[in-house]
Write a structure and sequence with these properties.
Elements lengths: L11 E2 L1 E2 H8 L37 H21 L6 H7 L4 H17 L2 E4 L2 E12 L5 E10 L3 E4 L14 E9 L9 E4 L11
Antiparallel strand pairs: 1-2, 3-6, 4-5, 5-7, 7-8
Helix pairs in contact: 2-3
Length: 205
């Protein structure tokens, strides 16, 4: 039996929390729901999911779900990189792109950065996104679960004296499970609800 993956929330808050983990250790109090068991192959495999419903599905195919998820995550990372101080308009716009555990952990990470006097520079990127599942939920909203590689090679975080607080000894690309949900029935808008590091096979190395 494969062991279940470790669950550590990762998200972008002017700095992605991958870098926060490297710099300051794991944040506490950021619960997430269970992820599917790690796959055996070296890369994640897409799972075709078609739910029998009387109305047309929000995303008719994995290709359509993938395109929507890629666009939503690109927007999310860009908004996080550009977000200003807490309570600024850009910060509120960024928060509006997440929900659930991701939203709560994002606020905690931003507060931690503010307390430590850290600031962020650069552009957070991702690649290699694939759809693990795309399906309706019992409340009639839609969920898309994806695997992707988060790339922090073009980012840095510095303290008040300008010194980097991020370890650059390890990899700058991290495998992640990112979960998207629609805010209501029949909506095509996607909000990020979870983004834990994936500790199964490292498909980003």
């Amino acid at each position: 039996m494969p062991t279940r993956p470790r669950r550590r929330p990762v998200h972008t808050v002017v700095l992605t929390t991958v870098a926060l983990f490297l710099a300051a250790g794991t944040l506490s109090g950021c619960a997430a729901t269970q992820a599917p068991a790690p796959i055996e192959s070296t890369a994640p495999t897409a799972e075709a999911t078609t739910a029998p419903t009387e109305t047309p599905p929000v995303f008719a195919s994995n290709d359509e779900a993938l395109a929507a998820a890629e666009a939503a995550y690109s927007n999310y990372l860009a908004a996080g990189d550009a977000a200003g101080a807490i309570d600024s308009d850009s910060w509120k716009e960024f928060l509006a792109l997440s929900t659930g555990p991701e939203h709560d952990a994002t606020v905690q990470s931003r507060e931690l950065m503010q307390q430590k006097g850290w600031s962020f520079a650069g552009r957070t990127q991702f690649d290699s996104m694939v759809v693990q599942s795309s399906k309706p939920l019992p409340n009639s909203t839609w969920e898309i679960r994806t695997y992707l590689c988060l790339d922090l090679s073009a980012t840095d975080t510095v303290n008040e004296t300008g010194d980097s607080v991020v370890s650059h000894d390890g990899t700058q690309r991290s495998p992640m499970l990112v979960v998207f949900v629609t805010p209501n029935e029949n909506s095509h808008q996607l909000l990020i609800s979870e983004s834990p590091l994936w500790s199964g096979s490292d498909f980003c190395s």
